[in-house]
């Protein structure tokens, strides 16, 4: 099953959900709702340092589990690079970036969350770079499938031809002709 649709950019530009999510909208951290606010703040920051974060677009109710890019080896372990999680860009906020495929389209989430309120703004944009990569993967998969289908059909034809040749060897005159001939 393909991860992407054939014309990602067109789907991103015309799909109603993508049109809504491509505008800056209010977002909110959605993890650990059953916990107290202070514990949620700590858990949010911990999740960010672990390279993931659950957010929701309030206006559309769309929930996303963001993976915050490649992990960098630090003294304390693996953490997302500053490109994907930046606590220093703006005091009291963390800026987030995540690249992923959503509904068959390569997108980038960009946004920030206030470290105390656990809300902020975010939006999706079309990810042209990863769309080209995914497109190449899709084309390669289709080409491989075509080659496998052709190989299968050739094998089936060879088997059929071999069986036809074998049948002609075993064909003989009817028994009554051999006996009474």
UniProtKB/TrEMBL annotation:
Pfam families per UniProt: CBF_beta
Keywords: Nucleus
Subcellular localization, as worded in the UniProt entry: Nucleus
Family classification: Belongs to the CBF-beta family.
Protein name: Protein big brother isoform X3
Protein species of origin: Hydra vulgaris
Gene label: LOC101235090
């Amino acid at each position: 099953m393909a991860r992407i649709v054939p014309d990602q950019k067109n789907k991103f530009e015309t799909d109603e959900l993508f049109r809504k999510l491509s505008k800056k909208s209010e977002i909110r951290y959605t993890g650990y709702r059953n916990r107290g606010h202070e514990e949620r703040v700590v858990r949010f920051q911990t999740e960010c340092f672990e390279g993931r974060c659950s957010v929701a677009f309030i206006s559309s109710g769309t929930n996303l589990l963001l993976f915050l890019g490649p992990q960098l080896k630090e003294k304390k372990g693996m953490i997302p690079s500053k490109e994907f999680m930046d606590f220093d860009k703006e005091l009291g906020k963390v800026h987030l970036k995540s690249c992923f495929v959503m509904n068959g389209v390569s997108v980038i989430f960009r946004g920030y969350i206030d470290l105390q309120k656990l809300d902020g703004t975010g939006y999706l944009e079309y990810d042209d770079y990863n769309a080209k990569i995914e497109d190449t993967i899709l084309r390669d998969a289709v080409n491989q499938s075509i080659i496998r289908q052709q190989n299968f059909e050739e094998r089936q034809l060879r088997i059929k031809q071999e069986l036809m040749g074998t049948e002609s060897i075993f064909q003989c005159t009817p028994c009554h002709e051999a006996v009474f001939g």
